[in-house]
Amino acid sequence: MSRIFRHFALLGILCLGFASLSANAQLVDFSEDFENVDPLSPTAVSDSGYIVFGNVFDLNFNFIYGYGTFPAPNLTGGFSEIATDVGAGAASLNIFSDYLNGDHGNMRIIEANVFREAMPSAADVGRIVEYSFD
After folding, report:
1. Contact 125, 11 (CB under 8 A)
2. Mean pLDDT in the chain?
């Protein structure tokens, strides 16, 4: 079943401030099904424009350090990979923790972020953005 999330791009003053940094930036329509990527390529995820960033916290959720941004990896055991044995289609993007970070063994909480960056412009204020996941 597909879920649709609606977010309003009502970024007000913040958006207008960023618009001055990049006057030509604008949110663009985007769709990705990962059916046409090589699931064995180490750059399969980053070739689709994804990047990663990690944050590390102690058990009381106090920030210790962050690391990134880096191109999103594939088949390394950290952050992301293209899976081909799923029922939704021939391929899908799997997101998980950075299991390559040794601080897992030091009782640390690893926050793994995988994303495609989109920089809104003033033209995006009031625009409805839909996210759909299968």
Report:
1. yes
2. 78
